[in-house]
Design a protein that fits this description.
It is found in: Nucleus. The protein is built from 33 helices and eight strands. It has about 675 residues and is an alpha/beta fold.
Length: about 675
């Protein structure tokens, strides 16, 4: 289509040649408007990376355009003058659940019975209705419709044609689960081959409750990807150092001590004594804190500062009013072009500062909306809550507080994004924190009192929770830091760098010539000083830089690659503890437990594999958390509670999966099982 006629040009900027720039994420694409459409559709096709910032309404619009274009290439859609005859019962077609008398159909017969036949049924409408019924009956989260696997499934079924027979429940639980587990295991075996060169990081994350129950999940991370290893119920011995030591010893043996560079533990292990056991018994393994947890604690302390907390509470008055009145929400979306004024993040404090950023961007439009004739004539305009919102929006002190909150939180959020993306960041954490502190100092250069409040919070958490010798050594070996004249903290890294070298090269034979090699590196001699190496200092990842240009210092090269190939956080891993609670704590036989462990293994590794391929914001959630304090008043009931009233009726008479998972999806405290 020519530019003047293709409506998708409103989402792109024309560049030289056949290049276009996406207006949502600013990515430059080769291939013109066609490639842009696949980029905005977020469908896994044409080798185009999906857009991480496009609005849902735009995605839906573009998908409909692509779908219409595909339909035009095929024969016209089939229509029937009379409903097609039902297939023989033994074929068990995909539509069978709609015709079966399910537990849900007994409760809602008028809703779940097949639609009455009409003279010319529309195939597209019938398919959409069937999919909708599947979502509603099984309480599937609507966000699943955005997943690439959902669209791959629909496309695969469409290509099979009318004769497709869906896999049965027993087939899913046995043949297909075992097959996919084997497939994933083989893929991970390929990843393990790099461990001999890069080493790996074991991430141990614990979950505890007030009933003294404890779960520990183990993940393994290396440059290629992060993988889920296993989940363990440690309730009976979580505070017993000897038993925990046996568990970690077993884990280390599973992976191989020679491969593990560090073990990252979250704060739940702070008082268990396990760190000392590892450091005393495994000379070459480091124990490091979770950088993301520390950064989240910094943001949490920021949000507790009086004027910041007051700013957040005032902003929540506005968002609760808007998101609890559909006509006001519709008007807000109209004024902002479909943009939200709330963003949900990986933690409460992250959500607060991301939401303040979103509100700041829509400041003028929010004021415009509340002052518009359309709003003034609405039934909401004279409500006390509306008047409170107007008062806050017209308060300059409020907007100054929002601006300040955004300014002091953004440097920390930037660091959090870098360390939470699942990529090796251990060589960058020192510089990132230094730049974050400099940003806050510069912002408050005329207000030393405020600067001290926030810098003290950062320094305290950094020294008490995040500072690690491995981080210091990685910073020293990072070429973008080592050769940067602006960096002033290099000297302070040397002591920890030498301690790390002594730990990784424990004998004099291993350390032979290491002093000369350090000199060669720090003075940029040999290959370190060639033009290619100098040009790549800022553009190539530190581990890859050493692999390419470190041959002039072979011993130091091996050490540098192992150190710089590590992550410094486990926070990007999805914490769906309800999944593991059901596996470990519900009474079940050996076969059921094995099946659920396999299911967790497949589910977690599929999700972690998807995280490494999609360019999304690692600290923000795709959907707004409608249960958060930014939307719902604390005393209001859950919007899903009406479903819980029918829990036992919906699940009675069902098979094993229905009984296990039906009630937990909308539990009061649990997250959605397997992301559904």
């Amino acid at each position: 289509m020519v530019r003047e006629k293709d409506i998708c040009w409103e989402y792109a900027e024309k560049l030289d040649g056949n290049k276009v720039r996406c207006k949502f994420c600013s990515r430059v694409l080769n291939g013109g408007i066609s490639r842009l459409k696949h980029h905005l559709s977020r469908l896994p096709s044409k080798g185009v990376n999906p857009c991480a910032k496009v609005r849902d309404d735009v995605t839906d619009r573009v998908r409909s355009i692509l779908s219409a274009k595909d339909d035009a290439k095929e024969s016209p859609p089939v229509t029937y003058k009379t409903p097609p005859p039902p297939p023989p019962p033994e074929t068990k077609p995909l539509s069978a659940p709609l015709e079966a008398v399910s537990s849900a159909s007994r409760l809602f017969p008028s809703i779940l019975l097949p639609a009455p036949s009409c003279p010319n049924p529309n195939a597209q409408e019938i398919a959409e209705r069937s999919i909708s019924l599947f979502f509603f009956e099984n309480k599937v989260d609507f966000g699943v419709a955005r997943s690439s696997s959902y669209h791959q499934m629909v496309d695969a079924i469409a290509k099979c044609g009318p004769g497709f027979v869906a896999p049965s429940a027993p087939s899913l639980k046995t043949e297909w689960l075992d097959s996919l587990k084997s497939e994933i295991t083989l893929q991970l075996k390929e990843v393990e081959k790099e461990w001999s060169t890069t080493g790996c990081t074991v991430v141990a994350e614990a979950w505890t409750d007030n009933k003294s129950r404890a779960l520990i999940n183990f993940f393994v991370s290396s440059p290629s990807r992060t993988s889920f290893h296993k989940s363990v119920d440690a309730s009976s011995y979580f505070k017993n150092t000897k038993s925990l030591a046996d568990l970690f010893d077993s884990m280390i043996q599973d992976i191989g001590q020679e491969h593990i560079v560090q073990i990252i533990m979250d704060n739940n292990f702070s008082y268990t004594g396990i760190s000392n056991h590892i450091l005393q018994n495994y000379a070459s393994i480091f124990v490091s804190p979770c950088a993301s947890q520390c950064l989240n604690m910094i943001l949490e302390e920021f949000s507790k500062v009086d004027w910041v907390n007051q700013c957040i509470l005032q902003a929540q008055v506005i968002t609760r009013f808007v998101y609890n009145n559909s006509s006001v929400l519709d008007l807000m979306k109209k004024v902002t072009g479909g943009q939200d004024i709330i963003r949900s993040g990986v933690s409460r404090s992250v959500s607060s500062f991301l939401s303040l950023q979103a509100m700041m961007k829509q400041k003028a439009r929010l004021k415009q909306m509340f002052n518009s004739p359309e709003y003034s004539l609405s039934t909401h305009a004279n409500k006390p809550q509306s008047m409170s919102c107007v008062g806050i929006l017209e308060d300059n002190d409020f907007w100054r507080a929002v601006e300040e909150s955004v300014a002091i939180s953004e440097p920390i959020l930037k660091v959090l994004r870098e360390v939470s993306g699942g990529k090796p960041a251990v060589g960058s954490i020192y510089e990132l924190m230094w730049r974050a502190k400099e940003s806050i100092r510069t912002y408050y250069i005329m207000d030393e009192n405020k600067h001290k409040v926030f810098s003290d919070i950062v320094d305290t958490k950094w020294c008490d929770h995040l500072h690690s010798p491995l981080h210091a050594a990685a910073a020293f070996l990072n070429p973008s830091i080592q050769y940067n004249p602006e960096i002033k903290f290099l000297t302070s890294l040397k002591e920890n760098f030498f301690k790390v070298l002594e730990k990784l090269l424990p004998t004099s034979d291993l350390r032979r010539d290491i002093t000369n090699q350090i000199f060669t590196f720090t003075r940029a001699k040999g290959m370190f000083g060639c033009n290619l190496a100098m040009e790549a200092r800022e553009t190539v990842s530190p581990g890859l830089w050493w692999e390419q240009f470190g041959d002039s210092a072979p011993v130091l090269q091996r050490v540098a690659i192992r150190i710089l190939s590590q992550v410094c956080s486990g926070y990007s891993l999805e914490r769906q503890w309800s999944t593991f609670q059901q596996i470990q704590w519900e009474r079940r036989n050996k076969i059921e437990r094995e099946m659920l462990n396999n299911l967790a293994y497949v589910n977690q590794n599929l999700k972690l594999g998807r995280v490494t391929t999609l360019e999304t914001d690692p600290i923000a959630l795709e959907d707004i958390d409608m249960m958060s304090e930014w939307v719902e008043e604390a005393e209001n009931p859950s919007p899903a509670q009406w479903l819980d009233r029918f829990g036992s009726a919906l699940d009675s008479g069902g098979d094993l999966n229905t009984r296990q998972f039906g009630g937990a999806i909308f539990g009061a405290t649990d997250h959605n099982i397997f992301g559904l």
